Amino acid sequence: MAHVDAAVRGADTAAVTVDGAGEVNGKSTYNVMVCLPEPLMLGSFRMVLTVSSAPNLLLAFHASLPASLLYPVTDTTQKCPVTRTSQRLLALGSLRMWALCTDNASVMVSMRTAAEAGGLVLATYGCFAHAVNLISKELCARAPFLRVLKSIIAAMVFCRRYTRARADLAEDRATQKAAGNNINELRTFSPTRWVGQSLTLRAFIDNLPGLRRVLLFNSHRPSALTFAVPPAMADAITDGAVEATAKDLFPCLQLISRLSASLEADVSPLSSVLGLFSSLCIVLRGNTFVALGTARSFVSDCLVARFSSYSHPLMVYAFYLDPSYDSCRQQVGVDLWGGEHLPLIRGQAVHNLCAGHEVLEQTVLRELSSCLRHTNVRTAALSRRLLHPVTWWELYGTQWPTLHFLASRLFTLPTSSAASERTVKALSVVLCRTRNRTLDDKVDKQWRIIVKKKQLRRGDLTGEYTR
Questions:
Q1: Angle, vertex CA 114, rays to CA 112 and CA 115, nearest 5
Q2: 103: helix, coil or strand?
Q3: Phi, psi dihedral angles at 125 (to 5 degrees)
């Protein structure tokens, strides 16, 4: 714990993510992660006999935070001399915990809203990896994709579980491998993680010739040696319309899956949310996914709706501070996003940051205007060096001191609570069905050791970041 406490004290800005899960004993366990931007586990808490309401969760969450995270930053004026020019900048520089990110369950939304209203954090927002997953789910639920996906999964489950079919398909794969064609095994993905359905479609498309050969060989065998093929499986494999629909849906799902993976990265900058969402909207407006038809506009509407319900105005402001999205800003700058123009939301974010200090607000807007005029040239020169925004501002942003100070804070905030979700998986190593009588204190200690041992061995994630 001393290493984590020292890391928190040495950080200028921190964000916290919270995620809950049910144990095998029926208890609800919540883990608390701090992002510096490298994620570190702070602690955990349980709602044993207490109702998991928003006020109770907020009290338990506040009690689980170490004093080092709540203690203000004392050397702000030495590290950032620009904070001496404004009391508001000094207050922002002294604030260590800037953001809280959780999933979008109603009780979590109420809890994080109360945390922001109470001044515990500067901003709160939802996990955008969950938002992308819901977009994939809504796309897969549209006709004819839902019917096709169900028939594909039914055929794949049959071929994976029925011994004869699985053996014939494995023999066909071995024959293809000997001929130089490496084909992956059939794979179905969890239905709760809809962004992974692209893997299901990829496995089906790759194995489709082999599946058809299995059915053909089975039909030519003597009746005593054949196995019964369900009509739904035969239709999914032999119907050309199913294959065509799967090939039409796969590229879009694969792109959405990669978008989710980018947002789940530990040091993914806050600007990635609007940057990736708007980039996908631009792609959908083009001719890339023409085969999807009206589903393209449906996905665009889903992107806008999810961003509006999960986001915070600071995300729009961070989007304008990231030079990598300059070309994207030029194409979406005049569009409405959630019923408002992006420049208006950006102005609202600046107004909230400045908290009524008109001189500071004018300074920020003046520096932002100058930055947007000059970064286009720098971005073109650095097109082959896709740096993390924190690194870019350290190298090239010192001529805008106020923006440099704000950008160094904003770009350390996470885009999702994926770090907390990954930590929950480590709990199953300590507490499982065959080892479920361990005391809570011992479980927490072993859980923290497993998580922190891996985290503290990691290198410089910001320096290694690539887009």
A1: 60
A2: coil
A3: -160, 170
Pair 210, 183: CB distance under 8 Å: yes
Question: If we measure between CA atoms, which residue out of 75, 84, 82 comes closest to residue 367?
Answer: 82
Give 179-241 as a 3 state SS string: CCCCCCCCCCCCCCCHHHHHHHHHHHHHHHHHHHHHHHHHHCCCCCCCCCCCHHHHHHHHCHH
Is cis: bond before 191, omega within 30 of 0?
no
Q: Are 412 and 13 contacting, i.e. CB atoms less than 8 angstroms apart?
A: yes
Contact between 321 and 271 under an 8 Å Cβ cutoff? The reply is yes
pLDDT of 460 > 60? The answer is no
Closest Cα partner for 204 from 183, 186, 177?
A: 186
Angle (CA) 462 465 467, round 5°: 140
pTM of the model: 0.86
Set out the domains of the chain in order of their start, with CATH numbers.
2-127+417-464 (3.30.420.10), 140-251 (no CATH), 265-410 (no CATH)
Reported as a single tens digit per residue, the pLDDT across 405-448 is 999 999 989 998 888 888 877 777 777 776 777 777 777 777 77
pLDDT tens-digit map of 298-307: 988 888 888 8
Do 222 and 278 touch, CB atoms closer than 8 A?
no
The DSSP symbol for 31 reads: E
**Segment 335-353, tens digit of pLDDT:** 656 567 888 889 999 999 9
Strand 336-337 to strand 123-126: parallel, antiparallel, or no bridges (unpaired)?
unpaired
- What is the DSSP annotation of 255-322? HHHHHHHHHTSTT--TTHHHHHHHHHHHHHHTTTTGGGTTHHHHHHHHHHHHHHHH--HHHHHHHHH-
**Residue for token pair 């319309």:** 241
Beta-strand ranges (E) seen in 47-177 are: 97-102, 123-126
By C-alpha distance, which of 205, 216, 80, 97 is closest to 152? Answer: 205
What is the rounded CA–CA span in Å between residue 349 and residue 345?
6
CA distance 34 to 22: 21
3-state secondary structure of 389: helix
The Cα 112–Cα 133 span in angstroms is 21
